[in-house]
Design a protein that fits this description.
Number of domains: 1
Number of helices: 6
Number of strands: 14
Shape: globular
Radius of gyration: 18 Å
Amino acid sequence: MMAENVPVADCPLRRSMPLPYHRRMRRCLRPSLLCLAMLGAMPAQAAPLLARYEVRAAGLPVMEVEALLELDGPRYWVRTRIRTVGVAALFSTSDQVTLATGAWQGVVPHPESYRVAGMWQGGPRQVAIDWTQAGMPRLQALVPAETGEREAVPDSLRRGTMDALSALALLARTVAATGRCDATAHVYDGRRRADYTARTEGPAPIPEGAGWRGQALRCGLEAKLIAGRRTDQDPEEAQRPQPATAWMADLGQGRPPLPVAVDLPSRWFGSVRARLLGVETPPPQLLASELAEFPQQRR
């Protein structure tokens, strides 16, 4: 399904927003990150790639996402940077970098490390997780620390998990190998344990707003919290599945299929929409500077 590169058109702005804005936006964007991780997951390729996305809610730009990754060979790494922009940045400043590394066993990723650093919702955020060879995650750092406001995730639910970027790298390899989206992964992020599932919905036109047009493979996504909910959350609401839709397209020039669009419904903003703006091969100096933020994770 070849997609044609076209200029990206601006989305219309909505003049009125529900209040209080920052609380509604925070609840809206938190589940969206489960799907934005997919922006950094692609099938194996010969060289690293840099993909840039814009995220809009109610027609307003609220996030910029950069995904820098290499999935070729026996090992893989994926680095993403997520920044709030526009009105969202006025109410909740976030600038967060995430790096996942691991090794492939066939098409199955086996995570080794997961690192998060930066600011999220105006406060410092740090996560460090290492996986043992037996598949048990070991939490090395967590900022802010848990203070009993969230239920604990038992060992039985943490064993055999992976991080979100590794899970969605699995999805991307599945799409590349089979032409379908069907995949499941158990995900642990240091606070929560969730199940990610994907299903094939078939060919569909690429939605408006992306830098490409044509046909893509439409994938239905779902994230469901299994453990780690906040104690002040209603259990039924916390475990309600979070759906999304992604469009994977062949961009040509020898590149593998990429997610060109991701949509997820929102109770207050209609839909949160991520669109691929561009993809390129990063220069070596950019790779060196970007990966230097996590020197312990370099190959």
